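Recall the central idea of this unit: under ordinary conditions, the amino acid sequence of a chain determines the structure it adopts. In this exercise we apply that idea directly, starting from the sequence alone.
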Amino acid sequence: MITQIKGKLVEKNPTQVVVDCNGIGYEINISLNTFSSLSSDENIKLFTHLQVREDAHILYGFFTVLERAVFRLLISVSGIGASTARTMLSSLTPSEIQHAIGTEDVATIQGVKGIGLKTAQRVIIELKDKMKILEGGDEIPLHKSNTIKEETLSALEVLGYSRKTSEKVIDNLIQGNPDSTIEDLIKAALNKL
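Accordingly, the structure predicted from this sequence is:
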């Protein structure tokens, strides 16, 4: 398994790069996130994933270890291939994917080209627990926002509002301001319900 490549950047475009490593040019498929993170510096280091197929050996490169870990988790889901995972990482940052899965935000995942409702739901179901244990992820903020969300929803239910209606409003409020307190969320939700 080739786990990283360090060398001279020979060619760079939004979908792939060529890295010269000791005289051998490696063609590496990348996401738009990695493309935008790469500087014009000649010497680069990419963390890689080697996909071995019957007809090809394909290298995928990532600017961070977190991005590679998210890619590997995504391709472990039935119905998500390497190209779909790369498209997801081009549309969303690894942290945004983690957050969407952690908060069960089907709409964000479904917003990626090529991902339907059932696939988005499958991604969330299969990866929710796995995403939390990734190093460098935002496990603590996700847990914190989930607790705040649950307490806010409970308070609104006691006040007579339906959970289903309240949940949509609360999700939008948390997305807009992840650092909101329970009091802030209740006040804002009462103005919108």
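The chain is about 55% helix and 20% strand.
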